[in-house]
Amino acid sequence: MAGETQEIEVKYRVSDLEALEAALTRYGVHLSAPVRQDDQAYAEPGWQYGQSKIGRAFARLRTQDGRHLFTVKKPQANEMACLEHETWVADREQMHHAIVAMGFSPTVRIVKTRRTAMHGDMTVCVDEVEHAGVFVEIERTVHGTESGTAVQAELDAFARDLGVALERTTETYDSLVRSALLPA
Question: Is 0.85 topped by the overall pTM?
Answer without folding.
Answer: yes
